[in-house]
Design a protein that fits this description.
Elements: H1 12-26, H2 30-65, H3 71-81, H4 107-115
Length: about 120
């Protein structure tokens, strides 16, 4: 069984309970509902198969069209194509700031100096 649907492995007891619930819910319409569900399930499987086939054909086409090469040389080529990141050069200020207070000065002392 597909690993995708491995959780759907039911025993006799589980199937019997599901059938009883289905009869209680759908009654006379049960054959119609089962037919509709069957069609929808088949369309779902066809869609999955078509996606899987498309993916496999794409992978086969890429494998046949590309030349065999070593991955080490490819990574060097990619690294050579990259622009090197640079940080801006630090330039110190050309003059000292005008309102420079000593570190030990408190705010009250600074205010008294500004008043003078």
């Amino acid at each position: 069984m597909d690993p995708l649907f491995a959780f759907l492995e039911f025993g006799f007891g589980e199937i019997f309970v599901i059938m009883v619930i289905a009869v209680l819910l759908f009654g006379e319409r049960l054959p119609e509902v089962a037919k509709t569900l069957g069609k929808q399930f088949m369309e779902f499987k066809k869609g999955l198969n078509s996606i899987q086939e498309e993916l496999q054909s794409t992978l086969r086409a890429e494998a046949t069209s590309s030349e065999p090469h070593s991955y080490g040389s490819e990574s060097r080529t990619i690294a050579e194509d990259r622009d090197e990141a640079t940080a801006p050069k630090f330039e110190p200020p050309k003059s000292e700031p005008e309102s420079c207070l000593p570190v030990s000065t408190t705010t009250a002392e600074a205010e008294s100096e500004e008043v003078r």
